[in-house]
Specification:
This protein is α/β, with parallel strands linked by helices. Strands 3, 4, 5, 8, 9, 16 and 17 form a 7-stranded mixed beta sheet that branches. A 6-stranded parallel beta sheet has the order 12-11-10-13-14-15, with helices on both faces. It is globular. It is built from 10 helices and 17 strands. Helix 3 crosses helix 9. The chain has 2 domains: 168 residues, Alpha-Beta Complex (Quinone Oxidoreductase, Chain A, domain 1); 136 residues, Quinone Oxidoreductase, Chain A, domain 1, CATH 3.90.180. It holds the Pfam family ADH_N. InterPro entries: ADH-like_C (IPR013149), ADH-like_N (IPR013154), ER (IPR020843), GroES-like_sf (IPR011032), NAD(P)-bd_dom_sf (IPR036291), Zinc_ADH-like (IPR052711). This is Zinc-binding dehydrogenase. It comes from Hymenobacter yonginensis.
Length: 335
């Protein structure tokens, strides 16, 4: 089969012929129609990730058709259109992943290839209203957003939500899901264009996080503080989120792209009775609930740009630029 192979740190991915993987007991082989990029892929390429090994086929997100099953695997899966849960071996406790938890695409070869083999429990039927490219945009970002918004922050219909740094895949999926369940969603971004596009997807409005004292301006515009705040940056700007939160608010963050947050003024947290929550990926139950929510509400993930598999390096550079609005997708096989 053809696959994009990364041979080492700061090297370009190369399209080459490699052995087609065969499903072991309990696994399925998926012929991939589409895969999607995540920042994780760029971080691995740059050597900014734990447990590096080379050569490796990157890619955590994928959708395709089951073409073979391993011993003991339900044969009725053959021919099914599926999307892949990139999380493996979460562990026994739903509150947090165990030490053996892995994400597809390192250390196991991932989805930037014509075929991939995964455990049968990692595939779910593709929502019927989504194309393969749209479905491929969903898994990692979708389960991350779902767990952050619903499992951890326990968002309720009618609550006021702030999603910071809108434009990335997880943030947009969180926006779409929150709007679908009847929340009032506001956003921040460094780009007025991205704020306008978020409004087109259902956000009430937004503000640039570059604006001076933006929490006061935005909370006045929104009519109050935010019950739930969803963040992926942390860093110095995290202190602004404390000011934007309503009393009793929940601030959940699933990344730290701007690094560690500075010292947190304790009084702001305890006097406002805030909850600060960390979140990473999600359980199989989170993944199933996320897919069901997208199916139930007919939500379509936002796609930024689609590349051919052979253009994988260009797609990674697009991700690295950070200019995307939505998911960057690789088209692998015709539907």
């Amino acid at each position: 089969m053809q696959a994009l192979v990364l041979d080492g740190i700061n090297q370009a991915v190369q399209l080459r012929e490699v052995s087609t993987p065969q499903p072991a007991a309990g696994e399925v082989q998926v012929r991939l129609h589409a895969a999607a990029l995540n920042h994780r892929d760029v971080w691995i390429q740059k050597g900014q990730y734990a447990g590096l090994k080379f050569p490796i086929i990157l890619g955590s997100d994928g959708a395709g058709t089951v073409t073979a099953v391993g011993e003991g695997t339900d044969a009725s899966l053959l021919g099914q259109a599926v999307l892949i849960n990139p999380g493996r071996q979460w562990g026994e406790h739903p509150a947090a992943q165990g030490r053996d938890f892995q994400i597809l695409g390192l250390p196991q070869d991932g989805t930037f290839a014509e075929y991939v083999c995964v455990e049968a429990r990692q595939v779910r039927a593709k929502p019927s209203h989504l194309s393969f490219e749209q479905a491929a945009a969903l898994p990692l970002g979708g389960v991350t957003a779902y767990r952050a918004v619903f499992t951890r922050a326990a968002l309720q219909p009618g609550e006021r939500v702030l999603i910071s740094g809108v434009g990335g895949g997880v943030a947009l999926l969180a926006l779409q899901m929150a709007v679908a369940v009847g929340a009032e969603v506001w956003v921040t971004s460094g780009s007025e264009e991205k704020i306008a596009r978020a409004v087109a997807l259902g956000a009430k409005g937004g503000i640039s996080y570059k604006a001076e004292k933006w929490p006061a301006t935005l909370t006045k515009q929104a009519g109050g503080g935010f019950d739930v705040i969803v963040d992926s940056a942390a860093g110095p700007g995290f202190l602004d989120l404390l000011d934007a939160a309503a009393p009793g608010g929940r601030i959940v963050f699933y990344g730290a792209t701007l690094g560690n947050m500075p010292s947190v003024p304790a009084a702001k947290v305890f006097w406002k009775q805030l909850s600060i929550l960390g979140s990473t990926m999600g359980t199989e139950q989170d993944f199933a609930a996320m897919v069901e929510l997208f199916e139930q509400h007919g939500i379509v993930p936002e796609i930024d740009e689609t590349f051919a598999l052979a253009e994988g390096e260009a797609a990674l550079r697009r991700m690295d630029e950070g200019l995307q609005f939505g998911k960057i997708v690789l088209r692998i096989a015709a539907e």
